[in-house]
Design a protein that fits this description.
Elements lengths: L1 E4 L7 E13 L2 E13 L12 E17 L2 E16 L3 E2 L2 E5 L5 E18 L2 E21 L4 E19 L16
Parallel strand pairs: 1-10
Antiparallel strand pairs: 2-3, 3-4, 4-5, 5-8, 6-7, 7-9, 8-9, 9-10
Length: about 180
């Protein structure tokens, strides 16, 4: 058996949603949020024409903390990331490849860290821009080629995500009209 690393860099489209809660004390904002998204496009291909793999679903549960400046918050975030990693099987020189360890789909768990800006442009509405790095760990796959020699594919599922979003803020905890979050 021989091995090689997947050094593929692929741009992909990401779309999804988030839910969370924030609490503001003076200029400090603390919160928890979770999100889930589908990642579409950009499947890496390994040397020899073997189909590569990628995450098709990615979710995070993260803490968030930042400073509010009038209607703007600058924040950092970190927590748990999880995703469904898939690996496609193709042929090498016309010989079909077969898995010998693990199957083609598995849930992976890792971590997420990032930072962002969020601006409240109306009492219950805000826009945000965020950078998020996720690491779902190492993924080793061993293949056999027919009855001949095999090989191992070693990959590390890491994502550098830049995203923008629009949020609606509910005022479920009573108090004055408009959410607490509208102060930043």
């Amino acid at each position: 058996m021989f091995g090689f690393n997947n050094g593929s860099n692929n741009g992909r489209f990401i779309g999804g949603g988030q839910a969370g809660v924030n609490y503001q004390v003076g200029q400090f904002v603390f919160g928890v949020e979770g999100d889930g998204q589908a990642l579409v496009g950009g499947r890496p291909t390994f040397p020899g024409g073997v189909g590569g793999g990628s995450t098709s679903f990615l979710g995070t549960v993260r803490g968030r903390g930042g400073l509010a400046f009038d209607r703007l918050i600058v924040y950092g975030t970190g927590g748990v990331a999880f995703g469904n990693s898939t690996t496609a099987v193709a042929t090498v020189a016309g010989i079909p490849g077969f898995f010998t360890t693990a199957n083609g789909n598995n849930m992976r768990v890792g971590y997420a860290v990032g930072a962002g800006l969020e601006y409240a442009f109306a009492p219950n509405w805000s826009v945000k821009a965020e950078y998020l790095f996720t690491d779902l760990g190492r993924n080793n796959r061993a293949y056999l080629l027919g009855t001949g020699p095999g090989f191992t594919v070693t990959g590390r599922e890491q994502n550098h995500i830049v995203r923008a979003g629009i949020n609606y803020h509910f005022n479920w905890f009573g108090g004055a009209p408009g959410p607490v979050v509208a102060r930043y």
